[in-house]
């Protein structure tokens, strides 16, 4: 069964409040999503492997630790996932970035894939799929399917706000994929929006609609 981690750090919760607020404009919304993505990246990389090397400090030789060069990839679900990429790359600049394009059919709420481009060495990489919203879970489940079909073996899913329905959908379809969220909200409304949520993440990030 997938584990669910809620990053309830005060800075994340504070910034998320302003992300949710409908009076927050596009520029500030984008900046806050970027900042929260950086803070979440700090938490999600806690288990990154280290190796010991020897260096010369100005005082003496010392054995000390560096990241062991694990290959990582970030995969935003288009469009809204794009808003989280730069914030993560600030901490993991060597990560490759793939893209999965999905939209929710407004009638059926089912995801439709329209684009996929991943790094060539898919099987060797640790993937973090990012999307601000996990609502019905349809998009996330489909994005994970898409990566697995192309050979991905190690996948985490990271989002800002999740509904219980979306968490359950990932857990049922992909019990090997752990879920990292900033807030677990109450439920979905009749239109498949997260309540209380933040509205349409893509529209708020890009100033559309
Ligand atoms: C939003 C959001 C997720 C999806 C979540 O994208 O960014 O990708 O909905 O909903 P689900 O869990 O029910 O699948 P949307 O389809 O609105 O596309 P956009 O990013 O282009 O705005
Ligand atoms: N997609 C969004 O952008 N917001 C929601 O609340 C649900 C899906």
UniProtKB/TrEMBL annotation:
GO-annotated molecular function: GTP binding; magnesium ion binding; uracil phosphoribosyltransferase activity
EC number, as in UniProt: 2.4.2.9
Cofactor note: Binds 1 Mg(2+) ion per subunit. The magnesium is bound as Mg-PRPP.
Cofactor: Mg(2+)
Swiss-Prot/TrEMBL keywords: Allosteric enzyme, Glycosyltransferase, GTP-binding, Magnesium, Nucleotide-binding, Transferase
Regulation: Allosterically activated by GTP.
Involved pathway(s): Pyrimidine metabolism; UMP biosynthesis via salvage pathway; UMP from uracil: step 1/1
Top-rank taxon, per record: Bacteria
GO BP annotation list: UMP salvage; uracil salvage
Ranges of residues in domain Phosphoribosyltransferase: 6-208
Translocase among keywords: no
Chain positions recorded as uracil binding sites: 194, 199-201
InterPro entries: PRTase-like (IPR029057), PRTase_dom (IPR000836), Upp_B (IPR034332), UPRT (IPR005765), UPRTase/APRTase (IPR050054)
Catalyses which reaction(s): UMP + diphosphate = 5-phospho-alpha-D-ribose 1-diphosphate + uracil
This protein's GO CC annotations: cytoplasm
Binding site for 5-phospho-alpha-D-ribose 1-diphosphate: 79, 104, 131-139, 200
Recorded family membership: Belongs to the UPRTase family.
NCBIfam families with a match to the protein in the record: PRK00129.1, upp
Function in brief: Catalyzes the conversion of uracil and 5-phospho-alpha-D-ribose 1-diphosphate (PRPP) to UMP and diphosphate.
Protein name: Uracil phosphoribosyltransferase
Gene: upp
């Amino acid at each position: 069964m997938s584990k669910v981690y809620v990053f309830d750090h005060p800075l994340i919760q504070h910034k998320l409040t302003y992300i949710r607020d409908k009076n927050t404009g596009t520029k500030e919304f984008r900046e806050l999503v970027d900042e929260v993505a950086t803070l979440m990246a700090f938490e999600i990389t806690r288990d990154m492997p280290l190796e010991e090397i020897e260096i010369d400090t100005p005082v003496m030789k010392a054995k000390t630790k560096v990241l062991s060069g694990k290959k990582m990839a970030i995969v935003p679900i288009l469009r809204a996932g794009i808003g989280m990429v730069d914030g993560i790359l600030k901490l993991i600049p060597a990560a490759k970035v793939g893209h999965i394009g999905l939209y929710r059919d407004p009638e059926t709420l089912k995801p439709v894939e329209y684009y996929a481009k991943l790094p060539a060495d898919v099987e060797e990489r640790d993937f973090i799929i990012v999307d601000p919203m996990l609502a019905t879970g349809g998009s996330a489940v489909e994005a994970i399917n898409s990566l697995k079909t192309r050979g991905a073996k190690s996948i985490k899913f990271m989002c800002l706000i999740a509904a219980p329905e979306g968490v359950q959908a990932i857990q049922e379809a992909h019990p090997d994929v752990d879920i990292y969220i900033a807030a677990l909200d109450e439920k979905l409304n009749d239109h498949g929006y997260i309540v209380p949520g933040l509205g349409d993440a893509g529209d708020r990030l890009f100033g559309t609609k």
